[in-house]
Amino acid sequence: MLVKHCVISALTRSTSHSPSSTVLRRQQFLVRTLCASRTHLPKLIKAMSSTSEADAESVLRTVTPTLDPKRHKGQAGKIAVIGGCREYTGAPYFAAISALRIGADLSHVFCTKDAAPVIKSYSPELIVHPVLEESYNISLHNLYVLLSGFSEEEKRKVQDKVIGEVDKWMERFDCLVIGPGLGRDPFLLECVSKIMLLAKKFNVPFVVDGDGLFLVTDSIDLVRSYPLAVLTPNVNEYKRLVQKVLNCEVDEGNAGDQLRSLAKQIGGVTILRKGKTDLISNGEIVKSVSVYGSPRRCGGQGDILSGGVFETFSPSESPAILGCIAASGLLRKAAALAFTKHKRSTLTSDIIECLGESLEDICPAS
Amino acid sequence: MLVKHCVISALTRSTSHSPSSTVLRRQQFLVRTLCASRTHLPKLIKAMSSTSEADAESVLRTVTPTLDPKRHKGQAGKIAVIGGCREYTGAPYFAAISALRIGADLSHVFCTKDAAPVIKSYSPELIVHPVLEESYNISLHNLYVLLSGFSEEEKRKVQDKVIGEVDKWMERFDCLVIGPGLGRDPFLLECVSKIMLLAKKFNVPFVVDGDGLFLVTDSIDLVRSYPLAVLTPNVNEYKRLVQKVLNCEVDEGNAGDQLRSLAKQIGGVTILRKGKTDLISNGEIVKSVSVYGSPRRCGGQGDILSGGVFETFSPSESPAILGCIAASGLLRKAAALAFTKHKRSTLTSDIIECLGESLEDICPAS
Q1: Which helix H or strand E contains B63, and what residues bound it?
Q2: What is the ipTM of this complex?
């Protein structure tokens, strides 16, 4: 997921100032891309070589931005996680803190009022906005509604308020991660659908994971043909996607082609299918990442890199693919490193602690 | 308690998928058991040798699953702790985090609304459900009741809601730990009784500790003859159990036989009597574990391994016994290790930090 972010966000963010118009950012990106292509092309070609197994380390070196003292806060990445509800608070934290651990400058979380104090308590590094609402909460928060019954009008009012809170920030973000710990409250998911439309309006790239995939699987048009959308399903989430979109079962014997068809069917969004070997496709090419890794399957690894943000000047036509490859490679390296230290007791937090060392090992900051 | 979990959960969990039917899981287990028995039998016989002191390390090696990169999240264990109220939040945390530190993939806590934010804040690794209700809380949460007074009907409504929240998850769990930090609120305990019935309906194994034992001692039929129930009383909890079930006092001179009679009297549930030497019986055999250990008696050690989850392919007819032996041995080793590091200042958290190293020392992950 990380690298998906990386490159996706790179599409819009590479020279971002806060605040600056998406259009301007995109123009600047194109210019830098052309300049950059001269220096990065050889590496890149190697990375995208015809072998289906990608050269993850080479891609990571390609997409990781050089640190520049002349830059100011925000230029190395401003991301927002949309997730965190009454039940789930760990997932959005893992996504948001991973972004910072990988080099992002600012990491926001938009969650429900219940989840906010808890997520804040995990780390003072995050900016947490308690703006989302769950059905059960609306009636508690609103005596009028409690007595009069929950009207459609009331519902719309609350919804508009939620969207308004996200709207005023949206333009500043370089990438969203939608879904970690989102839960499945119908009212909440309705709001998140509108947040996706908002992101598309501003051309803000987004990665969809966890409960965000539950939403998208039921309303595939939310992401259809949006080139800046990346889906990162695990085994079960992928199964539901295949059943819903391709009307068939997962075909392990033909995994690559099936993934390509799925991505193509959804209009060329990029999909990272997580597994023992990660498979990545945008409907055209298919790449795999199987280096490193750990046998531990503790919950949270799926979120761990959602928040990762890199800057890339990649001239590739499929930056999202590069993003996925780098994300997959880095998570796997960090997980492997954490496992050597903690063995069976390895937890997601231990893997996050290894992100920096793993990245430094692949592409030293100086 | 750990090992009880281990083996108990193993009964249903060894090849569990999320979600998958208990029946399927149990069938899969039986198959794996048969396959495994060939390789594990020699070790096992040694472990179950006629000496009353068990070979805890050998049992641990027997019940600890080998890590398999082909597995996906959840297959190494999904457990849930039922506990955590307005007063107590540490105990359920210790139980749930220990499960993860010992190799489980997912660890849930079902607690009261007051306890949830606190338990969540201890660690982003846990999934905490704020669903239990205490008497004092019900009227606060319900305006109608506040105005009309608390009726039996209202009480039932709230109870049904609580059970419903647990019901929708129950089938996914491989083992429950019922009791850590539960408190003694009558309404809450009434709900927990129904949760036990629910677990039995789904054939989900459960370990009963702390205030769960207070509940069970007063309503012994809740666990009578349930083969997947494990009780883990400390000195005082054991004393009450003996008085209630055997109508006599604890007979230290005849501890083993008395424990056997107690377990037999409750229909063959497994009991781990915690003490300087841990005694374990299922109404037939009696085993003891006295290796390692620490002179520190800081609160929380009783909870520390409740959450532990292992996978075992044990062909034994008494996996719960093996579970108890392994749990007892591992906790004692971790406690001993923590004491060498922290001496008088050793806390339960320090012991949890030593679980991974202790387990690795006994059966290396790779």
Answers
A1: helix B56-63
A2: 0.82
